[in-house]
Description:
alpha+beta; GMP Synthetase, Chain A, domain 3; three-stranded mixed sheet; rod-shaped
Amino acid sequence: MDFMRNWILSVTVSAMIIAVAESLMPPGTVKKVARLTGGLVLMLGILQPIVRMDYEDLFLAANGFPNISVEQKETQQTGNEEILKTIIEEELSAYVLDKAKQMGCSCEVEFRCVPGDGGTPMPEAVTVRGLLTPQQRRTMETILKEDLGIPKDQQTYIDEEVT
């Protein structure tokens, strides 16, 4: 509401100044040029809110979203990234556990994901807990490297029984 009041006030004051300036001009070409210039200045004053408008906020308001601050947007984005990271880590764990089950071994896996291209979380490292035979471990290393792109130096194996 304050914005509208200021805008109407500035347009009104501009129109009054232009009218006074026009009345002081001598007749002829100078007055015509002043009238044209005054009209352009008044048009700019009227269109000023459109030029300075924050279109993102307008879009959010038009779609019924609350007008949230930059901090709130960043917090929401961070929360969304954490949720996506958790989902990806759980899906990767389920995939590896399924492969382990096919090999006949029982283990637990924990992934560490980092933002990749475009911000999408990508697996960087993995910890595998369980009693794996040397053959099962080599197979697991191959699966993690070839299927998920985790190099062997980012794979940690802890030999302990899991429940």
